[in-house]
Amino acid sequence: MLSQDDYWSYFNAVADSIPDDIESLSEPKILEFLQRWKDSVWTENDQSPKQKIGNIRRVPRPHFTRTTRWMMDRVKDAIDSYVCGRWLASISLCGTIAEIVSIHLLESHFRARGIDEAGGIDVLRTMIKNLNQVARLNMLKKIGVVTKDECKKVDSIRTIRNNHMHQLTNAAEIESDCLQALNDLVEFLNNHPIP
User: Is the pTM of this model over 0.90?
Assistant: First the structure.
């Protein structure tokens, strides 16, 4: 049960003070609005410059040999969210990327076997998207698209995401799990080209 001290109020009116003609704003005025925005969305997880540098040292090193621009940009978003202390957002994004990767790998596998040519890809795509992530990963493992170890890495991301999306956890646990999810995701993508 939350005590009265656990409730907060929040009001952010920065957007209301920005004029319609953004193009006419001077550079100092733009910087002022951005600083006001930053001040208004500050949280206890905001990282100091030294903390961000430490976080940068800890992030995994992507060296993708083959991926899509969308995937590359989303992984960058997830890593930047970790560096900035937005661990829950990073975990959520890692989970989303892992699900999209599993869907894409299944679709690619079946398309390579002629299902697209037979006109059945739309039915297959719907079926794959309606499966949960555990079922998709089991299918990928069973048909030999991913190894048992790769499946464990991607499933770890799913577990971490579910743990933090469905219950309140402390910041230290979120930060640690976020780094684990990033490491698992980047390691998978570093070693498994996306067709």
Answer: no
